[in-house]
Amino acid sequence: MKKIYLLLVVLCWQVNAQTLNQSAAWPNPAWTITGTYNSDPLAFESDPRTTAFFAYDDDDAGNSAHEDNIAAESPVINLTPAFTAGETTLEVTVQYGYYYLANDVLRFEYWDAAAATWIPWGANSIPGNNTTITDNFCTIPKTTYVTEGLNISTFTSAQLTGFRYRIFYDDDIAGTDWNYGFCFSSPTIRSIACGAPTGLAVTAVGSGGATINWEPTAGITGFEYVLNTTSTDPTGAGTSTTANTYSPSGLPASTAHYFHIRTICATSQSPWRTITFTTSPANDNCSEAITLTVNPNLTCTVKTSGTLKSATDSGEPNGGVGTPDDDVWYKFVATATSHRVQLSNVTGNQTDMVHEVLEGTCGGGLISLSISDPDTSAVNGLTVGNTYYVRVFSYGSANNPNTTFDLCIATFPPPPANDNCPGAVTLTVNTNASCASVTSGTLASATDSGVPDNGAGTPNDDVWYKFVATQSVHKISLINVGGSPTDLVHEVFEGVCGTLVSRYVSDPDMSTASGLTVGTTYYVRVFSNSSATGATSTFDVCVGVPPPGSVCGNPIIVTGLPYTTTDNTNLYGDDYDFPNGGSSGCGEDTPNYYLNGDDVVYAYTPNVNKSINIRIPGAPAWSGFWFIQIVMTLELQLLHVLLVAAAETEKLINLLLLPEQHTILFFQLGHHHKALRIH
Asked: What is the DSSP string of 154-200?
């Protein structure tokens, strides 16, 4: 399995005596700036005429309809002395940082005075070396770039005496674009008698070797090369060759190698040129899959480290998620019918990973059992003792990832004892809302109990609990939720297993069960909102009694008028949220659009016909209250709803009450102190 790619970043060089060895010496007013560009300092970040850098920020230059091209051009350099001395190859060395985006062109060019035109210096643009910094591009850590050698042996007198070079940028040669930017330090141009090899590239990198190519050069003795794992220039001679290709084999996998090469001329040698490549991982193909240790539980005590660096396409069919052009392979022997596959500690330039579990034989005989973009998945229906394959790859295509990761195969525990309704665990009912007594639970290995779905989440991993009501109103809470997923659903039922009737279902982890019958057993089932399998969620279940004032079934009783209190709604909690007004205990007609926020409930029963005034001094914004009268038939009738405007500091309501009627005053004021006066 081979992958072809081109690396043109030259990492190091050797300097011999040169006739021409000239720094641009920025800031240098002899340089010129040309092009069509935004001159605002936010865009033209650094001017080499006045600073030590040349930097342009296309991201700050304008939107996608803006055309930007800019060049920093050297003054005229007379090449005649170098030409006369036999130094007929030129190269430029520079430190730079560059965030490449599609359609950018960034390159060196030279001026052909005979043709009066700028010519690209070399066949390739300067490669990007950063993908994170999007502003102030001189903060990018700089790397060295050396141009290909420019042969001036056939230059005319006009070309020699009128020579100039420049750094040229265009956000899109074909039109407008909106990209990022670059920063260059001051470059240096040199003349060399013996030109270094050009067109150095690596292709066909595999797990044990690669192919290295460079351009043939006329009129030279040959080349010398050194292949090692050190980035610095060789200190002695290398292996001689007259070829322009080299294909090493038997190299260690996942290892960075450096290929150094120089030209041998009649009386001298060129500077070394170096290209680096990393051999593919040992498990680059299915047939080379690494054996994984299966953990006996969900604790990943044993993990296997892996990398996608230099991984290539194994040629196995695509399972439908992502692009497996950089897949690596593992295998394990199933010890249970279900296992969890987990990628962890994912780092590198591509962290959106895919893993796939397959069965069968390598080389076209594999069948995909599951494929997952999330880093954790469960695979079911396995046969104990059979071997299964796992391949890992990045979601994107052609992205040359350097990603590393850990891979774990874990084993699910048996289904919990309360996996079905008859095994429901009895909950202790707290005497208040403190949740002093809780019952711990988990969804690990839970299955579908078969009780129908009532509209929130997917109960394919439900577990069951039950409690005996001690009040007409109880608060159900899921707390300390951990594992995965953490979005849980709980549902309250009445009846007996097999003929249960759902009272309500709640996605929020806290709900209020109203209208309960003291002494009756009620069931609670908990499950994940997700339809995926393999949950590892853990939680605590609490059944409590809301304090007076929390819910309509247990209001704060106003025994006489006038009545004044100062309180804070956040002491009572957020027991009613839209759209649950109909099951709140405050009546089917409760205006549930106003139910969001913390709330507190009061009740007053008059003994004679009377009008009362209700004042909320300094009412905060988006505070609301409404009034419900309960007549002798216990029917609930809504009398009035009022929102207190943000700008008002006090609100007064005059309400006529009839004797023997029970009035509920329902307030929602947010987390603000309030003073309530009724008279």
From this structure: T--HHHHHTB-EEEEEES-TTS-----EEEE---EEEEESSPPP-S-
Q: What is the pLDDT of residues 619-644, one digit of tens each?
A: 665 555 555 554 433 333 333 333 33
Give me the sheet containing 501-506, strands edge to edge: 425-426, 463-468, 521-528, 488-494, 501-506
* Domain ranges (residues) in the chain: 21-192, 201-278, 286-411, 421-544, 556-678
Q: What is the mean pLDDT of residues 238-265?
A: 96
Q: Specify whether domain 286-411 bears CATH 2.60.120.380.
A: yes
Report pLDDT for 556: 85
Strand partners, 259: 227, 275
Return the pLDDT at 566: 81
Q: pLDDT tens for residues 37-84? A: 999 999 999 999 999 999 999 999 987 678 999 999 999 999 999 999
Total Cβ atoms within 10 A of residue 190: 22
Distance from C-alpha of 28 to C-alpha of 105, rounded to nearest angstrom: 24
Any idea which fold 21-192 has? Jelly Rolls (2.60.120)
Helix %, strand %, coil % for the chain, to 5?
5, 40, 55
Torsion of CA 306, 311, 316, 321, to 10 degrees: 70
The four Cα atoms 219, 224, 229, 235 give a dihedral, to 10 degrees, of: -110
Distances (CA, A) of 484 to 245, 296, 377, 488, 657: 53, 19, 10, 10, 53
CATH architecture of the domain with range 421-544: Sandwich (2.60)
- Between 222-231, 434-443, 569-578, the lowest mean confidence (pLDDT) is in 569-578
Contacts of 635 (CB under 8 A, 6+ apart): none
Is 556-678 in the same CATH topology as 286-411?
Answer: yes
How many other β-carbons are positioned within 10 Å of the β-carbon of residue 138? 20
> Using one digit for the tens of pLDDT, what is the confidence trace for 575-594?
665 554 444 445 544 444 45
Domain 201-278 listed as CATH 2.60.40.10: yes
By residue count, the chain amounts to 679
Q: How remote is the C-alpha of 234 from its chain's centroid? A: 42
Architecture of domain 556-678: Sandwich (2.60)
